[in-house]
Amino acid sequence: MEKILVNGGRPLYGCVEVSGSKNAALPIIYACVLVKDKCIIENVPNVSDIRHSFDILRGIGAKIRTLTRTSVEIDCTGVKCGTSDYNLVRKMRGSYYLLGAEFGRFGRARVAYPGGCDFGVRPIDQHIKGFEALGGRVVTDGGYIEINSDSGRAKGANIYFDVSTVGGTLNIMIAAATGDGMTVIENAAREPHIVDCANFLNTCGANISGAGSDVIKIKGVEKLHGCTYAVIPDMIEAGSYMVAAAATGGSVRINNVIPKHLEAISAKLEEAGVTVEEFDDAVHVSREGELKHTNVKTLPYPGFPTDMHPQMCALLCLAEGVSFINESIFDNRFRYIEELRRMGAKIKVDGRIVSVEGGHPLSAAPLMAVDLRGGVAVLIAALTVEGQSEISEINLIERGYDDVVGKLRGLGADIKKVYLPDPVVQKKAN
Ligand code: EPU
Question: How far is the CA of 296 from the centre of ligand 1 (A)?
């Protein structure tokens, strides 16, 4: 059992480098399945969701060579359809991009139903509606999603999404890139990772326009070629360090970011009394005075990201007065709250509204990461309080944060990763 031990109560100071975006790297890596050639992908975060994805792709015949800590060569020339490992695929959410990628390459797909963080019901009906519009016959059988088509190729179509879906938009964009004819996605999600994946596919010879707006046009091409492409910086990792700097009352320069992607986060931090300075590819976050209570509503990009909700909640526990967070994307992204309550936080949940009565002192405690961002929220809270907190289930944090312990230590945190024997296993052994 690996755990993180934190002795908090020290402001963070210094500089931290942000890694490549997990949620951009995932669709790009799976989109390589469309390419019968070598692609070099740079600025890839070294996180377990990405490593699992490499294992999934290797399992279907991709050749993946590590070039440096953050760049890989992916050659999908010899991949086979329908052979991905059930247990690896169901471990994570991003593996659903293999559906779009196999359908785009082979005109059919067979991939296990995806997993991912538990935020209540996470349907993929919009993905399926999109695949059907592209001429796929979709069935779920024995835990697998299967797509078949008569023509052996995705066929261009007009698709209107009922909700703004990041995964659905990317999956359909990937499937349609090498499809037959024009696909138009309306009410498309606009997140920066969608633009990044479109840019990658276009660099490989695809013809995609409008990514970043709510209408994306994809003119299918016969064939894609290899390329070298660098993934954008991770806006949620950056936002998490911004909040950590603010929560500990520190002063941190966060390098390798696109400040435009951070605007909603910067605006809310400023409302809460935090100073945020923007540079070309960095932001500097500092706080000297007291935090102010504020209200947040999570929204699709360019709104405040749901993936920053738990971290913001941890921060608002430290602000005098009552703050409200309205979670408008997921119906149950609240499991982390129990862990903050363990530290003494006064938080209530009513439907999708979280009310945080700030200003009550928090204390160090044995804590658990319940999901990726919830885990980091708890870690941020632990950094703010004196005494030792112990965080378990850190594999959930490591799904999406590259070297979080090393980066926080670089900012002066007293933090380490330790291996502690599982008490149940140890008792049995005794
Ligand atoms: N939805 C549907 N039907 C669908 C698809 C989505 O009803 O077919 C609903 C969802 O239930 C949710 C909303 O639409 O209420 C938005 O879901 P979306 O499809 O946008 O989310 P996702 O693709 O499952 C990705 C990220 C999440 C991030 C969300 C929102 C990846 C691998 N995952 O999930 O990232 O929270 O977009 O921005 O990119 C994380 O990194 O911690 C994380 C959870």
Answer: 19
